[in-house]
Amino acid sequence: MENKDLNASNITVGGIYDMLLDSVNNEDTRPVIRLGRVDPTDNPLFRTTNVALDAVTTSVHSFNFNCYPPTHGLLQAKRAIADHLSSHFPHKLSAENVFLSIGGTQAIDIILPSIARPGANVLLPKPGYPQYELRASLCDLEVRYYDLLPERGWEVDLDSLENLADENTVALVIISPSSPCGNVFAYEHLKKVAEIANKLGIFVISDEVYAHVVFGSKPFVYMGEFSSIVPVISIGSFSKRWIIPGWRIGWIAICDPQGILQKSGIVSKITNYIEITDNPPTIVQAAIPEILEKTPNDFHSNNLGILREAANIFYDGCKEIPCLTCPLKPEGAMVVMVEINLSQLEDIVDDVQFCSKLVKEESVILFPGVIVGLKNWIRFSLAVDPSDLKEGLSRIKAFGLRHAKLS
Question: Which CDD domains does the record associate with it (predicted)?
Fold first, then answer.
């Protein structure tokens, strides 16, 4: 029996995951393969660095951080993040340019209401991260989507940016490394985005939650490198790179050497929203300087090696599944988008039905692409054990053959 409640257009990512998990056939004795949820802690190969554990332990045992945190965050934590980012920028950030948040999600929840005003609109990538649309809808901020082009490695459709914008456009959002596409934007491409934003008189919200999580040929580039061209509000997080999503620690960084966002009042609005929201735990904030300073490079390189292996397994395995097409071998982040070739399938009409039937028949959880704005695609997570990935791809192949149209 089909789950009629499985409507990806009107519930959250977590809601979809829970519904799919509830749809597992309990008579199937095989383990459930979870290729949808992007939580690296699900993979036993991923463990955070001992540096992070020691830093939090020291914070706890000091008895100095059992207090409420300062509204705008611990100064030493803000300064450490500012220094960390400044090493990649042509200008130096100060602690006052950084605001701590409860993960990247709360950063979105703070920024979008801060830029909303009657009639205003924001440009979002399609596909993209659904929290932006959900938050925009709650603060009466109109959303307009620009396309990411799979045939061009998920580059931004630059022409559509200019065509979408008008006098009420306040900002555009860019996500790199891209969730959900798994691509990494090149330096020159990001520079063109900055130049178009400057021409349009808007600023850029750069979602860099997956900063430095790159394992292809392209290096990661901070959008803040172009802040002399256009003001940038950067969103960062420890969740994915340090394998600690449950610690809920992120930040907002104002990259604006000309002070445009300060003069426009946007920084003041961000400050006002932070003053009426919850803050990350003081104990975790206190650990930030040591985590940033002492994490060894081999911790990050080892994790990237695991993801690189997963990307290779996925890309090669996907080629063996006739009903799926992957336009780009994953280059970064922990996710990838794959198109469903529905013309090859007999009794499946869209991505939601594909995922719903797959979990019932094969106990494999994938996310329908409509969640992230791209109907009839599916999103895979690479943050899974290689053996699970291989087994999941094998079951998906069997599922596709079972539902293939007879010639």
Answer: AAT_like
Residue at token pair 């620690």: 249
At which residue do the structure tokens 């007999």 appear? 346
Let me know if domain 13-47+298-403 sits in CATH 3.40.720.10: no
Nearest to 271 by CA among 86, 80, 111: 111
Kindly report, as residue ranges, where domains of CATH 3.40.640.10 are found in the chain: 50-294
Per-residue pLDDT tens digits for 277-316:
999 999 999 999 999 999 999 999 999 999 999 999 999 9
Instruction: Please list the alpha-helical segments (H only) found in 118-167.
Output: 131-138, 158-164
pTM of the model: 0.94
365, two tokens: 């959880």
pLDDT tens digits, 104-141: 999 999 999 999 999 999 999 999 999 999 999 999 89
Chain segment 348-361, per-residue pLDDT in tens: 999 999 999 999 99
